[in-house]
Amino acid sequence: MNTDQQFNLEGKVAIITGSSKGIGKAIAKGLAEKGAQVVISSRSQDACDEVVKEFTEQGLKAIGIACHIGKEDQRRVLVDQTINELGRIDILVNNAAINPVFGPIEDVDPAIFDKIMDVNVKAPWALSNLVLPHMQEHKNGSIINIASVEALTPGLGLGLYSTSKAAILMLTKNQAKEWGQYGIRANAICPGLIQTKFSAALWTNEKLLNKVQKNDSKRSHGTARGNDRYCCFISFKCRCIHDRRSIHR
Ligand SMILES: NC(=O)c1ccc[n+]([C@@H]2O[C@H](COP(=O)([O-])OP(=O)(O)OC[C@H]3O[C@@H](n4cnc5c(N)ncnc54)[C@H](OP(=O)(O)O)[C@@H]3O)[C@@H](O)[C@H]2O)c1
């Protein structure tokens, strides 16, 4: 059996948050190329529609549903509309996240702390909970949480972001432990520095980039494509390995 046959996602429906650009878009494309119907989502409906147009022109199956993941009413719309339009949810990729501050942890405004935790931790937890009954219905499902190498080793000036990503790793372990009984797998991916808009402040500043690389030379740096391969691998029914573990790249 070749890789295409092994990782065939025909008939599967995948929601990818924050998929109008960057890593989320690359993951959505990877899943769609393996046959999944993908739901492109971000705060802007126009941005989602643009990606849907691009994907459908390439023969891929995609719909666009705007959702600010920090807002419960919008999370519900994302799940309900996916079910109404596509009938099922097999894969949830909790990818969207924010990092509005850079600097010492003690200087961060408590309101910013709440915002980071709301979007980076509470939202993936709440969205996974909304998706849970739909995965339970088919006794199968895959939740993929995009964490970061920051979850494993603190970088420079990213303290609260780092903290939120470490929380996502533990959320993933708990989801795997509690929901494995329903046939639902939960995994996390910990990307290193990937050249996207999100991380532009780091990779466009040579001095800062050198500092980051010196701080942790084991971190890999790359482009958004690459993480999608892990997602395809995890999304397929390969239960034998990786459940309850994180992939560090
Ligand atoms: N880039 C890196 O070096 C790196 C490294 C490790 C981990 N990561 C993680 O990878 C994930 C994706 O990062 P990225 O670098 O691909 O970022 P990106 O290129 O800036 O893309 C972020 C995506 O999320 C959407 N988004 C932002 N806030 C949102 C919200 N509140 N609700 C819904 N959608 C939202 C954006 O669209 P709208 O603005 O239209 O909403 C966009 O589609 C994040 O979890 C990040 O922590 C990134």
Write the layout of secondary structure elements.
Layout: H1 3-6, E1 13-16, H2 22-33, E2 37-40, H3 45-57, E3 62-64, H4 72-86, E4 91-94, H5 110-137, E5 141-146, H6 159-179, E6 184-190, E7 193-194, H7 200-203, H8 206-215, E8 221-222, H9 227-235, E9 246-248
Parallel strand pairs: 1-2, 1-4, 2-3, 4-5, 5-6, 6-9, 7-8
Bound molecules: NADP nicotinamide-adenine-dinucleotide phosphate (NAP).
Description of the molecule:
The protein has 249 residues and is α/β, with parallel strands linked by helices. The chain has one domain (3-239): Rossmann fold, CATH 3.40.50. 47% of the residues lie in helices and 14% in strands. It contains 9 helices and 9 strands. It has helices at residues 3-6, 22-33, 45-57, 72-86, 110-137, 159-179, 200-203, 206-215, 227-235, and strands at residues 13-16, 37-40, 62-64, 91-94, 141-146, 184-190, 193-194, 221-222, 246-248. The strands form 2 sheets. It has a 7-stranded parallel beta sheet with strand order 3-2-1-4-5-6-9, with helices on both faces. Strands 7-8 form a two-stranded parallel ribbon. It is globular. Residues 17-24, 42-44, 47, 67-70, 95-98, 119, 146, 148, 191, 193-194, 196-199, 224 line the site of NADP nicotinamide-adenine-dinucleotide phosphate (NAP).
